[in-house]
């Protein structure tokens, strides 16, 4: 029972094994350096896995988004659009750089940003749109990329939930100017609790992201002639070399020990995702007859990797409110549901920026009705059956 309970908490989606243990010890015995060869190896593997030209590891998904904004030169006077149904990091990246953030309402079926709502929110200052591949399902990338070409804004994909997810056979995070991933402990793979990566095909954006990640350090010297990014080895030889800083930047690096774990996790990601997909299929089959539950809709051309399993509750048909369901499942059955997310424009941060209830009706309705069920690759059939039975019993 205790392992069932552990698997029925929304926390800790990730799973480590012997391979990760060995990777930690190997790097530890090598003095556990900051960003070095292990990071470069993980970056190369992630870029190859995704089909991207470049990948840069960073300290977390929030810094992946923040550096993407810096890579595009987003700042005061620019406008950035995103969805109100996301974690605050998505909107905080442009907002903390002084850009104006506005939201576009969601598609009420997939819960992702509705491409049909983007055009009317564009102004000449709109520099970027950040679609979020929510819960592990891709946004409508054909429509979003067509709008980006027509109106000349950049697309930054927030793929924090969507490691390994695909849109029409292509990995998410490879459509926009950049793709941002999180390796936080709850994500589909993790690098010891925190971590992230940015993908891009654009050499200039990659260079800016790499520089600002590491305090804008450039190393000059006779034997190297010009600029080597700090994580590359360079032949100093006997000649003089010196360090300069192009600008004031940040330290958003990942450590080698995290990257070594990431490499092992990435080898397993398709297996983990398949377990999530199978567990989601089990839940969908077992819950489909329960009145008042709206189960996830997966577009035929998407590979949804079920970072989360979203369920809408119709309180009249289901017989209880979302709040009562969350409370009763926890207290009577020991099951912890999530509520991803309360619409961002309800937060103090965005109320203080002038947003009001009523502006994004689909997002607001979702916020009232949505819960996320625990889902992770460890879940046994016994744990899933207990979850389903508890949801059915709680209504009695
Ligand atoms: C949609 C989304 N974007 C960005 C992030 C930020 O990632 P991190 O926690 O690694 O900073 C998260 C984290 O939960 C997220 O859910």
Folded structure, characterized:
With 396 residues, the protein is α/β, with parallel strands linked by helices. It folds into three domains: 10-208 and 250-260, Type I PLP-dependent aspartate aminotransferase-like (Major domain) (Aspartate Aminotransferase, domain 2), CATH 3.40.640; 215-249, no CATH class; 269-393, Aspartate Aminotransferase, domain 1, CATH 3.90.1150. It is 38% helix and 15% strand. It has helices at residues 2-7, 18-29, 37-50, 61-72, 88-96, 141-151, 203-213, 256-287, 315-318, 322-333, 348-351, 361-369, 381-393, and strands spanning 54-58, 79-82, 100-103, 126-130, 154-158, 166-167, 170-171, 178-182, 196-200, 217-221, 241-245, 293-294, 302-303, 309-313, 370-373. It has a seven-stranded mixed beta sheet, sandwiched between helices. Strands 7-6-13 form a three-stranded antiparallel beta sheet, with no helix packed on it. Helix 3 (37-50) packs parallel to helix 8 (256-287), helix 4 (61-72) packs parallel to helix 5 and helix 8 (256-287) crosses helix 13 (381-393). The chain is globular, with a radius of gyration of 22 Å. Mean pLDDT is 93; it is low at 223-231. Pyridoxal-5'-phosphate binds at residues 60-62, 86-87, 89-90, 132, 158, 160-161, 182, 184, 196.
Quickly count the helices: 13
Query: What fraction of residues sit in β-strands?
Result: 15-25%
CATH structural architecture of the largest domain: 3-Layer(aba) Sandwich
The CATH superfamily title of the largest domain: Type I PLP-dependent aspartate aminotransferase-like (Major domain)
CATH topology descriptor of the largest domain: Aspartate Aminotransferase, domain 2
- Specify the biggest β-sheet: 7 strands, mixed
- SS content category: alpha/beta
Ligand species: pyridoxal-5'-phosphate
Please, what is the average pLDDT?
93
Shape: globular
Count of extended strands:
15
CATH class of the largest domain: Alpha Beta
Q: Can you list the strand order of the major beta sheet?
A: 1-9-8-5-4-2-3
């Amino acid at each position: 029972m205790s392992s069932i309970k552990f698997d029925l908490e929304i926390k800790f989606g990730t799973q480590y094994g012997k391979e990760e243990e060995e990777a930690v010890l190997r790097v530890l015995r090598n003095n556990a350096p900051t960003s070095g060869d292990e990071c470069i190896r993980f970056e190369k593997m992630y870029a190859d896995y995704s089909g991207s030209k470049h990948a840069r590891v960073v300290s977390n998904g929030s810094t992946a988004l923040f550096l993407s904004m810096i890579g595009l030169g987003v700042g005061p006077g620019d406008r950035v659009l995103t969805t109100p149904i996301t974690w605050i990091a998505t909107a905080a990246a442009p907002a903390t750089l002084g850009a104006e953030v506005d939201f576009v309402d969601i598609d009420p079926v997939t819960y992702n940003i509705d491409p049909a709502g983007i055009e009317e929110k564009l102004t000449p200052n709109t520099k970027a749109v950040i679609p979020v591949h929510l819960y592990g399902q891709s946004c409508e990338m054909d429509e979003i990329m067509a709008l980006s070409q027509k109106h000349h804004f950049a697309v930054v994909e927030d793929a924090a939930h969507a490691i390994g997810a695909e849109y029409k056979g292509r990995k998410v995070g490879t459509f926009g100017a950049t793709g941002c991933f999180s390796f936080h402990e709850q994500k589909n793979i993790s690098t010891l609790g925190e971590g992230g990566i940015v993908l891009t095909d654009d050499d200039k954006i990659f260079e800016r992201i790499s520089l600002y990640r590491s305090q804008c350090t450039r190393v000059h010297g006779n034997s190297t002639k010009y600029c080597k990014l700090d994580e590359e080895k360079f032949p100093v030889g006997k000649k003089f070399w010196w360090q300069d800083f192009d600008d004031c930047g940040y330290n958003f690096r990942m450590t080698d020990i995290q990257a070594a774990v990431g490499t092992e996790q990435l080898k397993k990601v398709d297996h983990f995702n398949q377990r999530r997909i199978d567990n989601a299929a089990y839940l969908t089959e077992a819950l489909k007859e329960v009145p008042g539950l709206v189960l996830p809709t997966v577009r035929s051309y998407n590979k949804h990797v079920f970072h989360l399993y979203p369920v809408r509750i119709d309180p009249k048909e289901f017989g209880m409110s979302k709040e009562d369901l969350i409370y009763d499942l926890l207290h009577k059955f020991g099951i912890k549901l999530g509520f991803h997310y309360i619409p961002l424009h309800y937060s103090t941060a965005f109320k203080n920026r002038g947003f009001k209830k009523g502006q994004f009706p689909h997002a607001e309705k979702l916020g009232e009705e949505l819960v996320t069920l625990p889902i992770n690759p460890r879940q046994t059939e016994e744990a899933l059956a207990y979850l389903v039975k508890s949801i059915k019993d709680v209504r009695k």
